[in-house]
Specification:
The chain is mainly alpha-helical. It has a domain of about 100 residues: Chitosanase, subunit A, domain 1, CATH 1.20.141. About 55% of the residues lie in helices and about 5% in strands.
Length: about 170
């Protein structure tokens, strides 16, 4: 999978403007009720990009951010083509460290959240099924451990749907 294909699929999941005041990513400080509330759009959050006008962010601007700050920075082109969408989507959905840790979890290597040569080498043995399992397990753990807030249980269904959509596209 190449960048253009992957970014369109991620856009399906991340495309809407989110103005949920309970979502810490919508605040410039990453803390609910602190800083400036700007929301998130196309998966680009006020927490990560506090200087951007999130509400008026265009798809072309978001794609440029995705290419530079995610696809290239986290070495997605060095991964097997069938893992690229999974890792790219995970990095966007869980943050770079979290997404890389999912790949490392699937590869059964130390989870340091850094995509170096060891992780890339270990990823050669990882299948999309391994990634789907690691991600599903992570989502369930979040809801069981109360990782974020009371909304996690309600969001579990949507997260698992997203995981299945990525799996379906990765094996197509």
């Amino acid at each position: 999978m190449n960048f253009e294909e992957a970014v369109l699929l991620v856009g399906v999941s991340e495309g809407k403007y989110s103005s949920d005041p309970k979502d810490r990513g919508n605040w410039t400080t990453g803390q609910v009720g602190s800083g400036i509330f700007k929301g998130s759009k196309f998966g680009i959050s006020a927490m990560t990009y506090p200087h951007l006008d999130i509400k008026n962010l265009t798809w072309e601007q978001a794609k440029s951010i995705y290419l530079t700050d995610f696809w290239n920075r986290y070495k997605i082109p060095l991964l097997k083509p069938d893992l690229r969408l999974f890792v790219f989507d995970s990095i966007i959905n869980h943050g770079p460290s979290g997404g890389i840790k999912l790949l490392q979890r699937a590869a059964k290597v130390s989870q340091d959240g850094v995509i170096g040569s060891n992780t890339i080498q270990a990823s050669l043995k990882v299948t999309v099924w391994d990634m789907a399992q690691a991600r599903s397990d992570y989502y369930v753990e979040i809801t069981q451990n109360g990782f974020n807030d009371e909304n996690d249980q309600a969001q579990l269904k949507g997260w698992l749907r997203r995981n299945l959509r990525v799996l379906r596209e990765s094996i197509a």
